[in-house]
Amino acid sequence: MNENGNLIETHGLTRIYGSGDATVRALDGVDLQVKRGEFVAVMGPSGSGKSTLMNILGCLDRPTAGQYILEGEDVSRLSRDELARVRNRKIGFVFQSYNLLPRLSAVKNVMLPLLYNSDEHLAKEERYERAIAALESVGLGDRVHHRPNEMSGGQQQRVAIARALVNRPAIILADEPTGNLDTRSSIEIMDLLHQLHRDGATIVMVTHDPDIAAHAQRVICVRDGKIESDGHDATGPCLERGRYDESE
Amino acid sequence: MNLSETFKVAWEGLALNKVRSFLTTLGVIIGVASVIMMLAVSAGAEAAIAEQINALGANLIIISPMRGVPGAGRTLLYDDVEAIIENVRGIDGVSAEFQTVQDVRGGTGNLSDISVLGVTSDFPGVRDYELSDGRFFTAEENERKLKVAVLGYGIARDLFGEESPIGQQITIGSTKMTVIGMMEEKGMVADVDYDGRVYIPITVMYQKFNPTRIGSDRVRTIYVKAESKEAMDSVINQITVLLAERHDVDPAQPDFNIQTQQDIISTQEATTEAFRNLLAWVAGVSLVVGGIGIMNIMLVSVTERTREIGLRQALGARPRDVLLQFLIEAVTLSLVGGLVGVLVGVGGAELLGRLGDMRTAIVPASVPLAFGAAAAVGIFFGYYPATKAAQLDPIEALRRE
Q1: What DSSP letter does each residue of B314-346 carry, written as one string?
Q2: Nearest CA to B333 among B19, B22, B1, B17?
Q3: How many CB atoms lie within 10 A of CB B365?
C-alpha cells in the first residue's frame, strides 16, 4: 500500500484499438484514483470507453499508454500469466449475466477462483470451507448444493458475488450487476453491496441506471474516452446526459 | 490447479456428452484394437512356425509326389528312398513315411482308429524325436520285415499304464507285434498328436497293411535330413537329378515336389504377413482418423465453451491452465478409447484364434504400447484445439454468447 492511500491510481491511461488510419482512441489519458474502502459508480453512454476502462482496471486488457497502479504495483506492462495471477488474487468480478457454470453446484462455482490460486495451495477441504463461508456471507448458506438453474436470478448473482469474494480480493469490479434483475432482486443485490462496503470492501461498479448509481458514494462519468465529471454527490448533468444517451 | 483435479474437470466435461464422446473415440478404439490384434497374430504365427520347426526337425528336405501335373505318371516308390540313401552325398538320414489307421490292442487296452506310421530306421534322427524307453528298430530289422513296434507316449500309457511296454505283445489290426521302444512325450504339435501314434517298419506296413491296395510299394512322403544348412542346396540338386532320371522326366518339370522347411514357413509367413499388414494399415488409419475426430470434437468443445474459458481466465486461469485442461480432456478421451480398444482387441484376438485357422497369442507388452499410442494421439491431436483455447482473449471470450 502506498502512502497516499490510493488502491487504484492511473496516469494518462490510454487505449487505442486498430492501426493505421482506422484507429479508435477508446481511452484518452484517464487519470483516476480510488481509495481503499470507496464505493464508486462508473457511468457513461455506450462507446464512451467505460467498458474499456473496466477491462483495464480488471487486468483483462493492457493500456496502450499510461500507467495503472494497483495496490502500489504497476500492472500496466505485466505478461498474460502475471495478469492472470493479479486477477485471481486482487480482483473479484461480478458480471451482468452472472457467468456461473451451469453444470456445477453453487459451492463448486464459488470454489473456482481458489482452484487457480497457486499462491496459497489450499487443500480441498479448506477450499470447500472457504466457499461455504463466502456463500453464508451472502445469505445462501442453505443453497450451497443447488445448481444455477435451480435458483432465482437474484440468488445466482449472490453466488457470483460470493465467488468474487472468496479469494479476499482488494477490489470488487461489478459490471451492471443488476442489469438482468427485476426491481426487488436489484434492491437485494444493492443491499448486499452496501453491506460489503460497510465491512470495508472497495467496489467499482459500472451502471447506466441513475437509481443504481445513486447507491455509490462517488460517480465517475466517462465520455469520449475521458473522465467528464467525478463527484461525491450524484452529479446531475452526468446522470441526465447518461440517460439521454442510453435512450438514443 | 493440480493434475487429478484437471482430470476430474475433464471427465465431467466428457460425461456431459456421453454419446458424442463415445462416437469420437470410435476411431481410437478400432486403432488400438487393431494394434493388439496385429501383434497377437504375429506372435501366434511365430509360435506356430517355431513349433513347426520343432516338429519337423532341422535341415529337413521334404519330397512328395507332384499333384495335378500332366504326364506325372509315376509316384514316389520305396526304391527311390533306397536310391537316395545310396547315391546322394551330404545327408544324415532319410525317412519315408506311410500312414494308415488301425485298431490297436494290448495290455489292458483296446484302442480303435489309431494312426500307424510305417517309417524307416532313420525316423528319430531325421525328425529330431527321441525315445524315452527301449530303442527304435534298425535298418536290418526293417529289411527283414520284423514285426516290431515303437509306441507313442500316450498309446503306451493307455495300453500298459505306468508299466514299461518293452517286450509286450500288441495286436495292430490282426497282426501281432512286439513292442521294442517308446517315444518321448511330445503332445500336440501343429495339430498332430504325436503321442497318439504307433511306429512300425515301413516294409511291414507294405506287407500287412498295404493301404493303397495296389501291389507297388508307394511312399507318401520322403524326409531327408541334410548334414548342415550349407549342404541343403547341393542335396536338393542331387535329389532332383536322381529322381528325374529314375522317373524319366525333365528335371525342370518333375513329377515330384521338393520343399524345405523354409518354403513351408515362407508360405505361412506370407499369409500371416498379409493379414498383419492389413491390421497395421487399419491401426494406422484408425488412429489418425480417431485423432482427427478428437481434434474436431475438441474444436467444437472450445467453441461451445468459449464463455466458460473467458470466465476461467477472468477468475485467474493462466493460458497454460486452460491449455492443460483441454489437452487433458483430449487425452482422457483417447485413453478411454484406448481402454475400450484394449478390451475389444484382446477379445478379438481370442475370437480370431478360436474361429479362424490363424493362431493368435496376446502379447502383454502390446497393452501399454496401445495405451501409449492412444495417449500420443490425444496429445498430438488435442494440442491444436487446446492452444486455440489458451490463446483466447478473455474479453472477447466473455462477450461471446
Answers
A1: HTT--HHHHHHHHHHHHHHHHHHHHHHHHHHHH
A2: B22
A3: 9
- Chain A residues touching residue B312 (CB < 8 angstroms): 112, 116
Residue B304, chain A, CB below 8 Å: the answer is no
Mean pLDDT confidence for B321-344: 92
Per CB-CB distance under 8 Å, the chain A contacts of B5 are 115
Instruction: Specify whether the CB–CB gap between B104 and B170 falls below 8 A.
Output: yes
Q: What is the pTM of this model?
A: 0.72
Confidence of residue B72 (pLDDT cuts 50, 70, 90): very low
pLDDT at residue B71 greater than cutoff 50: no
Number of H helices, E strands in chain A: 8, 10
Assembly ipTM:
0.92
B395 touching A (Cβ < 8 Å): yes
* Domain locations along chain B: 3-52+270-399, 76-254
By C-alpha distance, the chain A residue nearest B14 is A103
For chain A, say whether B5 makes contact (Cβ under 8 Å): yes
* DSSP H or E run through B6: helix B3-15
Q: Residue B38: pLDDT above 80?
A: yes
Within an 8 Å CB–CB cutoff, is residue B321 touching chain A? yes
Question: How confident is the prediction for chain B on average, in pLDDT?
Answer: 84
* B12–chain A nearest CA distance, Å: 9
Question: Dihedral (C-alpha) B197, B202, B204, B205: value to the nearest 10 degrees?
Answer: 60
